[in-house]
Write the structure tokens for this entry.
Amino acid sequence: MPAHTAPVPDHAALRARYDRATVHRDAPFAAVDTEAFDANAADLVRRAAGKPVRVASKSVRCRALLERVLAAPGFAGIMSFTLAESLWLARSGFADVLLAYPSADRAGFAELTGDPKLAAAVTVMVDDPAQLDLVDAARGRGREEVRVCLELDTSLRMLGGRLRVGARRSPLSDAAALAAVAREVVRRPGFRLVGLMAYEGHVAGVGDDIPGWPLRSRGIRLMQAVARRQLAERRAEAVAAVRRLADLEFVNGGGTGSVQHTAAEDAVTEIAAGSGLYQPRLFDNYTAFTGRPAAVFALPVVRRPGVGVVTVLGGGYPASGPAGPDRPPVPYLPRGLRYDKQEGAGEVQTPLLGPPADDLLVGDRVWFRHAKAGELCERFGALHLIEGERVTETVPTYRGEGRTFL
């Protein structure tokens, strides 16, 4: 499937539109451009080529926007990040919630196994029989059957396993190991094996077109091509082995950066994606697609320390992952602002350098993009939904609803 190229925005016009839409709101605040959000959603569906897209809630962290995207054709189900979140979403009416990470939440498991509605809606992740033991110990009087998904490790292994590329997730790296745990799930009363997941983060979450680093970018593309071929074979073998033991309802794979590649595998029945809806800065550097920045936040100018410098309130919102220059948010609008290397993004205030600073007055706004997607919502209690030149709705984030799951 050919790469999709989003239209190049007129940044001055975009800034003017955002400023007009939010003129009566005091910064700091966060906003989502619904036109860009919907366009990104449509592009994820296009790249999935007919396979349903399960939306990753950690990349959205707003119930209203989860409802919005799930109402769009091509999306089905949620991939959650904690058991407490999964139960909350299920109680809120979301009927298909796949917990993407193992949990040690005993109280949550007691709640899950004691409520037929929750047990029918939530699927938990397992990659070790010890996790089944924990669920059994937490059951109490609850006897509801627990839906289980197994996770296959997707890391690229070369040189006899001495070279490894990819996140350290599941210990189950081949069909035999996966089948062994599948047998344990199947033989145990109170559990039902319904799914398999394999998330290739080193393909889906690593950009392959890094500005100023052509050789590194080429190396990443080569690594990802090898990884895709290897994983397609391993995933097919693993799915076949587990299907001999259980009637799987779904096989989940992929992520925003690998949607079209993962969807091409016959063994995969659904794709996971979420970050591409907001299009944070870490997803700008892909050759396979180009999204439209949808999630932004505005900080007010509160000082003008000198020529070519302004200071905004707040800004120190780094993303998770290895510390580096790609983790802070980026000044987005107006174009041409940059951090002071001696200060960076500050906890309470952030100086910004560049020619546009001289055109900014105290009270004006600087618009930023976060490095990651849903982590932005841990900093703000609400998202202003911008459509055209007005805010059509203001909706709470998880944090705005008093929910801080991690």
